[in-house]
Amino acid sequence: MSSDTRGQSNVVGVAILLGVTVLALGTVTASVGTLIETNAAAADANRVAADLDDAIQPVRTTGTRVGAVSFTDGTLTTESRTVRVLNESGTVFQRDAGAVRFQSGSYRVTALAGAISSGAGDGRFTRSPPISVGNGVLVVGVPVLSGSLDASGETHVRVRTRVTHDRRTLGSGQFRVAVETRRPGPWEDFFERENATVSHRDFDGDGVESVVAAFPGNRTGYVVVHRVEVSTDG
């Protein structure tokens, strides 16, 4: 092989090597960027879950409370979600409980019916719902959110809540509790731990199913409605 041919081969080899190196560096850079974005979204979700837990305390609070919710990127909105209690005859309690929803990338936080779920996919409860199952008694706490939150991008918003409480008796019977949600996993786990049989049903045909928990045996049922008026403060 002539020196010219060998020289050309070396040049081609170096060019190929440089191309492979650039491609590899590009892949690494993209992977690092994705990892940074994912970590930032997870951090925002954790922060929002903790902030909502502090700002919205429907069971422990009466009257006015002011908290704050902060995140670097994402959207914070309110959505319509229904909670129902049923006995053998049908629905004995129904309210639009409302939900606060945060999303950043694949990470979400949902505050619904007193519970807070956080994480990718269905996530997990960082605060369990105020539902108590005792010996012959079922007490269902239903925080009912009214008002709205609407924020996006880098946000620090003060959240004002005004909370009142109303307890009512549902009598005795075999009860089911149905919570409308797009994140059924944590609710299924919670109800199964309470020895309930879990199923799913779209009550109103809107495409969002409810997780339905059927509790065994006859019980005296109570509902405690925690009315929570939510608004931004400044």
In brief:
This protein is of the alpha+beta class.
Q: How are the strands of the largest sheet arranged?
A: 8-7-6-5-2-11
- One letter per element, helices H and strands E, the order comes to HEEEEEEEEEEEEEHEEE
Number of strands: 16
Number of helices: 2
In which range does the helix fraction lie? Answer: 25-40%
Which strand-content bin applies to the residues?
A: over 45%
Distance from N terminus to C terminus (CA atoms, Å) equals 80 Å
Rounded to an integer in angstroms, the radius of gyration calculated over CA atoms is 25 Å
Given as residue ranges, the uncertain stretches (5+ residues, pLDDT < 50) are 32-36
Estimated structural class: alpha+beta
Principal-axes geometry comes out as globular
Largest sheet: 6 strands, antiparallel
Number of domains: 1
The whole-number mean of residue pLDDT values reads 87
Quaternary assembly? single chain
